[in-house]
Amino acid sequence: MITLTEYLWFNTKEHREYINITGDVDVVLKKSGIKEGMILVSAMHITAGVYVNDAEDGLIEDIDKWLEQLAPFRRDYKHHLTGESNGDSHLKSLLIHHEVIVPVTNGKMDFGPWQQIYYAEFDGKRKKRVIVKVMGE
Amino acid sequence: MITLTEYLWFNTKEHREYINITGDVDVVLKKSGIKEGMILVSAMHITAGVYVNDAEDGLIEDIDKWLEQLAPFRRDYKHHLTGESNGDSHLKSLLIHHEVIVPVTNGKMDFGPWQQIYYAEFDGKRKKRVIVKVMGE
Amino acid sequence: MITLTEYLWFNTKEHREYINITGDVDVVLKKSGIKEGMILVSAMHITAGVYVNDAEDGLIEDIDKWLEQLAPFRRDYKHHLTGESNGDSHLKSLLIHHEVIVPVTNGKMDFGPWQQIYYAEFDGKRKKRVIVKVMGE
Q1: Which residues in chain C are contacts of A43 at CB distance < 8 A?
Q2: Distance of CA A74 to CAs A80, A91, A120, B49, Å?
């Protein structure tokens, strides 16, 4: 079994941002040389997520608005008694989920035509990481 | 390491449908012959999902109603400026998630008594696929 | 490839409870002896979940309140026609998701500084299980 682990770094300009990382993950896959297996792509933070969906700007706006509706910023989260103000960022992370598994077949990500991997930042403007771990043969 | 990759095809009659695919996944597992490992079951579309829960018709109605409440059909999604009308299908897919990993122990899916794998179609009446990738020994 | 499978048992005092199982998973990892690979941590029940987030009591209260808002207890779920009363527990399980994959690098869980693994019980006071399956080399 071959494994290869790399880390993608982010330092977003906005508090919330959605970044297409499909190309970055593909670079790690190619470097690993595996033909069959899978790739774990997982945020290493509890106020960020990783998801697979469409690379369409309007939809990304819809996703952002929807996450704010279902997991809104509020002053009165209990978590804020610690001095933090990012309770909503944790809930958004739980809603979108922090990781995906990408199948690899014949040396390529085995995706449907519209599937793209996104890093979702919910508490940005600081250095954060995603682990990309390739496993296979 | 043994890997086996197969694809399940769907063309639902309804716009939204929930299909128990546990038996189909088991056929692929048996064909692979692995005793230890896991199975990635992942929708290859951005308006569908895969989840593990109960095979109970009433609950499936509850899940459908709940998804429509949390990620409702609306005319005014930004995504619809592209000509699409399925913004809600994308959000439902994100909510339910598009993939699961099934553990395999002693040649069997290592599930609890009520766990069943479902394909959740949120924008049906067309051909769509799920990848089933078995990995193990 | 090395695989090791163990089961964690729970019997919570409360109907809903959130239990940090990071240490339990680490014991299984150490026992396996793998240096590179991953760990599947998955609830074996359809009214429980496993997630990765912060070990902060205030946040856990926020998460519980938020889950009750988005997937509330209601008398009129169709699922209750079976005699059950835990429709909301199923929906909470779907929302938080029932499993995570933990990356392993150099023999350690390759987590960010605040990531902790939680078992989320949504229909407790009875014996339930989580599977921990380590795979790697």
Answers
A1: 112
A2: 9, 11, 20, 30
pTM, full prediction: 0.98
Q: How far is CA B113 from CA B12, C1, C46, C79, C101, in A?
A: 28, 28, 9, 17, 22
Q: Amino acid letter at A48?
A: A
Q: What is the ipTM of this complex?
A: 0.97
**Which tokens sit at C19?**
């239990």
Whether B134 contacts B26, CB under 8 Å:
no
Cβ-defined contact of A77 to C62 (cutoff 8 Å): yes
Contacts of B105 in chain C (CB under 8 A): 5, 133
Question: Shortest Cα distance from C59 to chain A (angstroms)?
Answer: 5
Contact C3 B114 (CB under 8 A): no
**Residue B116: closest C-alpha in chain C:** C46
8 A C-beta contact, residue C69 and residue C22: no
Task: Yes or no: say if A87 and A74 are a contact pair by the CB < 8 Å rule.
Answer: yes
What distance in Å separates the CA atoms of residue B100 and residue B130, rounded to the nearest whole number?
Answer: 11
Query: Which are the contacts of B95, defined by CB distance < 8 A and separation ≥ 6?
Result: A95, B49, B67, B70, B71, C95
Concatenated DSSP letters of B21-86: -HHHHHHHHHHHT-SSEEEEEEESSTTEEEEEE---HHHHHHHHHHHHHHS---TT-GGGGGT---
Return per-residue pLDDT of chain C as tens, 137 residues. Answer: 999 999 999 999 999 999 999 999 999 999 999 999 999 999 999 999 999 999 999 999 999 999 999 999 999 999 999 999 999 999 999 999 999 999 999 999 999 999 999 999 999 999 999 999 999 99
Rounded to a whole number of angstroms, the CA Rg of chain C reads 16
Residue appearing with tokens 């897919």:
B93
In one-letter notation, the amino acid at residue B87 is G
Minimal CA separation from B19 to chain C, in Å: 16
Contact A90, A84 (CB under 8 A): no
Is the Cβ pair A3, C136 closer than 8 Å? yes
Which chains does chain B touch, 3 or more C-beta pairs < 8 A? A, C
Give the tens place of pLDDT for each residue, A28-72: 999 999 999 999 999 999 999 999 999 999 999 999 999 999 999
Q: How far apart are CA C26 and CA C32, in angstroms?
A: 10
Report the C-alpha gap between A106 and A49 in whole angstroms.
28
- Retrieve residue B131's tokens: 């990848």
